[in-house]
Amino acid sequence: MTLPEHIDLSSGWPNPALLPANLLRTSATEALSNPSVKDTALHYGADEGYDSLRTHIAEWLSTFYQPCAPVTAPRVCITGGASQNLACVLQVFTDPIYTRNVWMVAPTYFLAARILDDAGFAGRLRGIPEDDEGIDLEFLEKGLQAAEATAQQDGNTHPVGHDPRVDVTVKLKPARPWRKIYKHVIYAVPTFANPSGKIMSLRRREGLVRIARRYDALILTDDVYDFLQWSPTPGGPFPDRACVPRIVDVDRYLDGGPVDEWGHAISNGSFSKLIGPGVRTGWAEASDKLVYGLSQTGSSRSGGAPSHLTAAIIDQLFPTGITAHLQNQLIPSYASQYHTLVSAIHEYLVPLGVTVYPPGAVSGGYFIWLKLPEGLHASQVAEQAQEAKVRVASGVAFQVPDDPSDTPAVFGDHIRLCFAWESSRHLTEGVRRLARVLERMKNGTVTRTQ
Ligand SMILES: Cc1ncc(COP(=O)(O)O)c(C=O)c1O
């Protein structure tokens, strides 16, 4: 077998060979052949989404996350995937004037930034650093305090980055019974983060919920990689329970449970990484009240939740098909690709001074985040790698745009590698090519930063 001319370790996409076309073909035939399914699925649907899938997802999440009480269908609504749903959450629960800032764990999933920009938050995104345990709570709380202090000043309040002519005590959006406007939004990918791959510890998750309650913040988490987990040791077992409760689970039990019927957390789930991005179907989980409010987004009120037919097709995979696909196909393949990439990194990159973060008790997700040897800049590495026919993602792409902090984190000393897209053989060759680039850059035979 010949090697491909270009090897892509940059794109966060699933390997096409792992997309379950046959499974979906059978499910689609089943859904479209059964009159009781097809007549519903081809029509306008409920605002909350395809009912049977909501019930199935609720049962599936209960088994996987083992929350303090089972997830029930009213806590779940069907979405068009994590990105689409982030936009809907912002439409219903934030106000471009009253909501002060969006706090993003940095490095961050950069494509969320455009969605926040569309919702009116340009210039008001703030990066929160993370360490090995996840989000820096002290930094976040100081930032929230400063934003609130500014908001108290001079009566004509304006948080950092906000137009000073605007009075943020006024809400642009009128009050509605299904809507609560939060003062702040906190965005995180707490498990197998994109790009850092880190898992936020339970105590940080609990601390974050307490802060969100104190400062009237809604925590939105993209929990899109949680199901993709395996042992950090090659050949080890594949756990079938989540390694840590989601933040939405923490909000259910912490200090006696949610402080009001809305709660302060919403979990964004997606079938993009579990079935295929083309299905553009996901789910959101939060309190009954928040989920009902989300289902009242104008675009869902007009004809029902997105991805209705696809939701009915995906529903045919429950309860057993989805688990079989994950446990027998996807997870073993990704685990093997992950271990191949890690071993190639240790063999070819670590001797050159690259740092790979030690795995925790469980590994997973799509990405490995690497620190470059001293003096090399990620953008130049990505550029040189492209010339050597291997693509890697520069850490700079994951900075929070226009972060008004004094010293915004830039991540020019990091790169992200994805192990999901390429097959194992190509992953190893890609790392070899990257090693040659780093070696040349270190030796000064190509340009490097001072
Ligand atoms: C953290 C994160 N959120 C959201 C998405 C996109 O999800 P969806 O395809 O469901 O919109 C991705 C995809 O890379 C992601 O990494």
UniProtKB/TrEMBL annotation:
Gene3D superfamilies: Aspartate Aminotransferase, domain 1, Type I PLP-dependent aspartate aminotransferase-like (Major domain). GO terms for molecular function: 2-aminoadipate transaminase activity; pyridoxal phosphate binding. InterPro entries: Aminotransferase_I/II_large, PyrdxlP-dep_Trfase, PyrdxlP-dep_Trfase_major, PyrdxlP-dep_Trfase_small. It holds the Pfam family Aminotran_1_2. Coiled coil: none annotated. SUPFAM superfamilies: PLP-dependent transferases. It comes from the Eukaryota. Residues 29-434 form the Aminotransferase class I/classII large domain. This is Aminotransferase class I/classII large domain-containing protein.
